[in-house]
Every structure is written in structure tokens, then in C-alpha cells.
Backbone:
């Protein structure tokens, strides 16, 4: 992807002001194979299509130099591109599919083509801006915007200096224009970071409360658009969840209650999707959201098995997960789900332990729930037991308080009951101490 670029032509001044876009999409490759470059183009087209009113009207793959250099492509290719763009009257913006273009390159290309030029960072950031719903996601987007504002500022200042011949002090302040603007940006960044920190502390508190309830937590992760939200909707029956055929539909961590086969309550955590080469600053701004994953008891890795790049997507997800410094037991116990199998006839996973599922049609969910339950019991040290108790004694109310009671089968003839419970290891130890004569059967 580093060797790829895409270009978008847009009508309007800034991304947010645009509302009717016709896009020309140009992708470049140098050392990659053409099929790979085409897949990268497909992903870039999907990014543009995610935005309302944006449309890709043309795309091209051409060899590129190092995208970080001042000239992304050679003179010949630049001419080919310029002619192509001029021949397409509806083109309003150009999207270069490189992570970042320098502000100088941007300025020069915009000058030559007479329209805005975007890179991957700007486009992904705009998608995030459109999809951010909660206060936290909005703050994270604002934080990711700061480096962009900073580089625009540098550009603006060098332009001013050229026009006026040297930097000027703002009247009476003793600060140059650049210093004032930098200070304002720094203050803004600090304000956003403080607000995010406050929200983080609140989340940590909620986490502690959730821990007290001892609800196991399952983080559902995977590449963007693989079906994470659809799967959680199917597992919990929560009608309010809205899966969308869009990249980065989910930007906020949300928790949803579900129930495992033995009636054990569980919390599924929906997370932001991954993308190959997700711009670095964006990853940093959103990594706090992923902090939550470290506190879960299990990770479910969802894969869109119908995607032509499903193997590369898996590698991307695993590499991001490894970089999150998660506890090793979480990585080792991960459950791999092959989703969208309804689109492949008689699909059988090649990977050992992977589970074939259609989240949309509800296939394979029971097997998945059983697997999740098995892993949760191992991870949390919880046990499923059946105990014989005397109904006249305090055991039943104790179990209701300290464990999850699943079934009570009363034997009226001798005032006893068989009680099926899910119990944590420390509670189990206390139970055995308090009621040493109680009959216990392991499930
Ligand atoms: N055919 C088929 N489509 C599915 C299945 N699961 C999800 N989809 C579709 O895939 C698209 C993406 O689904 P989401 O659940 O929003 O995916 P996501 O992983 O949450 O995506 P982001 O939040 O954007 O990262 C939607 O159009 C779903 O209807 C499935 O099992 N079969
Ligand atoms: Mg989602």
C-alpha cells in the first residue's frame, strides 16, 4: 500500500463543505504486482464510496516514485494524469492513495490541476468525522485533525512570508503569526487530551463496576466491514444495532449483553474495524478506545471469508493486536470466526479451530456460543456445578448472592433442591468452607 496512491477530484473548498462530489480515483503502484495493486484500488474505491455524495468516476494505476518525495510521479506520468483530468469535466477532486502527501506536493498538484487533492489520511479522517457519534469519538477525530492543521499552518505561513517578505509580529503581542497560531493549536490539543482523559477515567470506573458484577467480557474484533456489528446483533438479538455496508461504520466501543448456552450472561464489546495502513496518527488517537480490549476475557476475531484479501486482512488484524500489548493469554485463546459463509457454497474452514458462521442468516451461532462459553470458563476460572442443598438452610440465598443460579429443581419430599450454578473459583472456595457437607457435582 505504501507504493499506492489514489486521487480524488472534488467541487467545493473543504471536505466538509462538499456535498456533491464526482471523483476521479487514480492509484499508483511500483514494486507490487498488478493484482495486488488492483485490490488496493478496490479498497480505496470502497473508502470513497463510504462517503455520501462521493463518486469515483475514473481510476488509474501508474508507477510511482517514493510517495514521500516532492514529486510523486515522473514528468511523463504527471502529463498523462493532467490530460486525463482535463478531459473529464465532472471531476471535482483527486484522491492519491498514499498515506500522506507533503503539503508542498499537495499545493503543487492542486495548483496544476485546479482542484483539491486528498491523501488517505484526509479521506479516512473525513469518514471518521462523518461517522463519529459519541462525544469520545468526536474528540478523537478532533485530536487526529491537529497534525493536519499544523501542517496547513506551516504552508500558510511560508506563503505569507513569501508574499510579505519575512515574518511579522502581531501588534503589541511580541509573537509572530506562526507562534500565535501554534500556541492556539497547542492549547486546543491540550484541551482535547484533557477531555479525553476525563472520559477515560469515567470508563475505567464503569469497568471496575462491571468487574464487580463479574460479567465476562468478549471483545469482537476484525477488519472493517467483516461483520462484527452484525454478529453481535445476532448473538444478542439487540435490534438497535445497525450494521452498514460501509468502512468504519462503528467508531465507538459499545457493550451489548448476551447469554451463553448455560444462561451465563456475557458482555459483547463492539470495536472499531482495522484497515491496512491506517494512517498512523489516526491509529494513535483511537488506540485508547482499544484499551478496553485488554480488560476483556476473550477476543473473537471475525473475518470476512469472502473478501479476496482475507488472508492479508487477518495478518493486519493480528499485527495490530500484537502491537496493542495485550496479555498473551488473550492472544492465545482467541476464537477465529469465518463470517459470510452463506456466500460460499459448502464452505469448510482450512484453519484448525476456526468456526464457520453467517451472522446475517444466523448459521453456526450455537456452536460459536458453546466455544465462547468453553473459553470463558477457562479464562475466568468459573465452574458450572450442580449442588444438593437443604431448602431450610441458607445455601440457596447464599448462592443467589454469590454465584449465578441457573436452575433450581425442588424435591418436595425431603425439602431439598438440586441447584445448577456458575460460580467463580474464590466463591467456590468460600462455599466449600461454609457448607462442608454439601453434595457437589461437577458438570
Ligand atoms: N452475506 C452476508 N453479509 C454479511 C454477513 N455479516 C455481515 N454482512 C454484511 O456486511 C456488511 C458490514 O457489516 P457490519 O456488521 O456493519 O460490519 P462491521 O465489521 O461492524 O463494520 P465496521 O463497523 O465498519 O468496521 C453489512 O452490509 C452486513 O449486512 C453475513 O454473514 N453474510
Ligand atoms: Mg461495526
Residues:
Amino acid at each position: 500500500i505504501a507504493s499506492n496512491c489514489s486521487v480524488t477530484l472534488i467541487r467545493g473548498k473543504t471536505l466538509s463543505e462538499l456535498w456533491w462530489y464526482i471523483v476521479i480515483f487514480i492509484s499508483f503502484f511500483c514494486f507490487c504486482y498488478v493484482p495486488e495493486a488492483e485490490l488496493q484500488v478496490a479498497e480505496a474505491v470502497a473508502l470513497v464510496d463510504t462517503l455520501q455524495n462521493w463518486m469515483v468516476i475514473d481510476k488509474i494505476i501508474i508507477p510511482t516514485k517514493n510517495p514521500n518525495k516532492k514529486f510523486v510521479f515522473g514528468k511523463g506520468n504527471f502529463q498523462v494524469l493532467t490530460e486525463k483530468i482535463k478531459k473529464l469535466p465532472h471531476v471535482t477532486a483527486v484522491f492519491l492513495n498514499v498515506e500522506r502527501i507533503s503539503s508542498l506536493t499537495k499545493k503543487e498538484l492542486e495548483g496544476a490541476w485546479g482542484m483539491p487533492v486528498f491523501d488517505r489520511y484526509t479521506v479516512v479522517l473525513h469518514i471518521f468525522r462523518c461517522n463519529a457519534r459519541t462525544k469520545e469519538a468526536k474528540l478523537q477525530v478532533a485530536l487526529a485533525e491537529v497534525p493536519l492543521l499544523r501542517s496547513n499552518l506551516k504552508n500558510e505561513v511560508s506563503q505569507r512570508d513569501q508574499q510579505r517578505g519575512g515574518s511579522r509580529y502581531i501588534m503589541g503581542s511580541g509573537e509572530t503569526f506562526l507562534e500565535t497560531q501554534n500556541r492556539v493549536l497547542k492549547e486546543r490539543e491540550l484541551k482535547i487530551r484533557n477531555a479525553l482523559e476525563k472520559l477515560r477515567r469515567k470508563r475505567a470506573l464503569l469497568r471496575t463496576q462491571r468487574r464487580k458484577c463479574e460479567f465476562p467480557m468478549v471483545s469482537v474484533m476484525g477488519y472493517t466491514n467483516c461483520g462484527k456489528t452484525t454478529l453481535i446483533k445476532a448473538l444478542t438479538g439487540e435490534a438497535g444495532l445497525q450494521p452498514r455496508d460501509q468502512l468504519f461504520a462503528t467508531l465507538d466501543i459499545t457493550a451489548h449483553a448476551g447469554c451463553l448456552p448455560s444462561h451465563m450472561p456475557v458482555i459483547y464489546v463492539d470495536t472499531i474495524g482495522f484497515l491496512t495502513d491506517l494512517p498512523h496518527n489516526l491509529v494513535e488517537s483511537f488506540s485508547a478506545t482499544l484499551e478496553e480490549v485488554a480488560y476483556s476475557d476473550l477476543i473473537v476475531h471475525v473475518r470476512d471469508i469472502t473478501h479476496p484479501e482475507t488472508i492479508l486482512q487477518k495478518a493486519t488484524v493480528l499485527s495490530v493486536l500484537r502491537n496493542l500489548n495485550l496479555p498473551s493469554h488473550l492472544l492465545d485463546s482467541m476464537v477465529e470466526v469465518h463470517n459470510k459463509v452463506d456466500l460460499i457454497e459448502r464452505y469448510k474452514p482450512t484453519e484448525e479451530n476456526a468456526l464457520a458462521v453467517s451472522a446475517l442468516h444466523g448459521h453456526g451461532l450455537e456452536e460459536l456460543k458453546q466455544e465462547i462459553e468453553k473459553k470463558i470458563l477457562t479464562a475466568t476460572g468459573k465452574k458450572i456445578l450442580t449442588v444438593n442443598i437443604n431448602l431450610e438452610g441458607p445455601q440457596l440465598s447464599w448462592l443467589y448472592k454469590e454465584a449465578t443460579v441457573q436452575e433450581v429443581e425442588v424435591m418436595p419430599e425431603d425439602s431439598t433442591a438440586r441447584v445448577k450454578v456458575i460460580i467463580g473459583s474464590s466463591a467456590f472456595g468460600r462455599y466449600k468452607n461454609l457448607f462442608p457437607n454439601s453434595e457437589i457435582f461437577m458438570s
User: Anything to note?
Assistant: Residues 170 and 300 are 56 Å apart (CA to CA). Residues 15-127 form a domain with the Rossmann fold fold (CATH 3.40.50.11060). The radius of gyration is 27 Å. The chain has four domains: 15-127, 132-209, 214-378, 381-442.
